[in-house]
Amino acid sequence: MKASGLRKSRKMCIEAVRQSRARKTRRKSNRCHRKEREGFYAERSGDKV
Known about the structure:
By secondary structure, the protein is mostly helical. The protein has helices at 2-24, 28-45.
């Protein structure tokens, strides 16, 4: 219960950071980084996208 709540809050925080970062600047490397990060989350949660 505690762990799932922590993960949810962390994910929301990351979403906010991602949006603010995207709003500030858009770079080529950003797309690459996002893909990498999404893959990381998919691996951690256990389902392949």
